[in-house]
Amino acid sequence: MDYSNLRRQAASLKKGLFDQGHLDEQFRQVEDLQDEASPNFVEEVVVVFFKDSGRLISNLEQALEKYPRDFNRWDAYMQQLKGSCSSIGASRMKNECMSFRDNCGQRSVEGCMGSLQKLKREHAILRQKLESYFQVTLEAPPCQSWCHDRWIISINLLTDVCMFTMQLLRQVGPAGAATRPAM
Amino acid sequence: MTSSLKALLVDYMAVERMVVSSMLRNFHCEITLAKNGKEAVDMFLEGNEFDIVVCDKDMPIMTGPEAIVKIRAMGATDVKIVGVSADDNAMEAFMGAGADDFVPKPVRPEILQPMVQEVINKKKN
């Protein structure tokens, strides 16, 4: 399998996420928290983020249908979502959260509805792009671990060759050794 | 030998608990989690002791500032309390409630680390 090509693809997908403004520097901070003890940390955080944010958006949609209009409640939901977005670096989603809160401040129902629709679009786009990214990274492990695996395979192969050679020599025995020409 | 601090992390959102607890773990903290202010207060009522509390502001049931007022009223004056929030106006609410410090969200490890180090140094002395 051409791991280098897959890694290039993963890098390109990630660059696109940053260049298009979906992610900001905070995502790199989250990546820095990933280590050997928690090798899938970033993906786990992203999974939890989409679970949390999906739930909040759903709660907000229900709240928007209720009367009387409770802008404070809507704002509270969006404040929570904004915090989560900023924690993983979901930049465009965070901006839509701020736009929604501005509309809450202006008591604009239409504005809030419009912001929510944009937020849902950004949520869906980010989810799809990150899913694609993680799918590729799953197929192309980071070079460090791949190189480490290559070394392990090489060492195991060398060990097998040595063992085989020793067994062969034992079978040949002293008689075989006596027929060998003197050095 | 690195001191292990007892940290209480209070945040309603799971993703934020994951990210900040990972940072605190890197700073060699032993972490307890709470999902809202009431859970945090209950931890203290149960006799748990912490060296540092990192607490969000807006949470259901009991907010961060509300919890901090209660924690300080219980006599827990030595524990360092750091308020965190994405809300631009949160600092005043936290400091007024009795927090020692405030960190805006997203929490950066380079901002949090000196605060943790301060507690470590204080504990050593």
TrEMBL record, chain A:
Domain HPt: residue ranges: 38-133
Protein's GO biological process: cytokinin-activated signaling pathway; phosphorelay signal transduction system
Transmembrane helix among keywords: no
SUPFAM superfamilies: Histidine-containing phosphotransfer domain, HPT domain
Cited InterPro entries: AHP1-5/YPD1, HPT_dom_sf, Sig_transdc_His_kin_Hpt_dom
Entry keyword set: Cytokinin signaling pathway, Two-component regulatory system
Functional description taken from the UniProt entry: Functions as a two-component phosphorelay mediators between cytokinin sensor histidine kinases and response regulators (B-type ARRs). Plays an important role in propagating cytokinin signal transduction.
PANTHER family noted in UniProt: PHOSPHORELAY INTERMEDIATE PROTEIN YPD1, PSEUDO HISTIDINE-CONTAINING PHOSPHOTRANSFER PROTEIN 1
Name assigned to this protein: Histidine-containing phosphotransfer protein
Organism of provenance: Aegilops tauschii subsp. strangulata
UniProtKB/TrEMBL annotation, chain B:
Protein name: Response regulatory domain-containing protein
Domain Response regulatory residue range list: 6-120
Cited Pfam families: Response_reg
Keyword Phosphoprotein: yes
Residue positions, PTM 4-aspartylphosphate: D56
Alphabetical UniProt keywords: Phosphoprotein
Gene Ontology terms describing biological process: phosphorelay signal transduction system
InterPro entries for the chain: CheY-like_superfamily (IPR011006), Sig_transdc_resp-reg_receiver (IPR001789), ST_Response_Regulator (IPR052048)
Keyword flag Phosphoprotein: yes
Top-rank lineage group of the source organism: Eukaryota
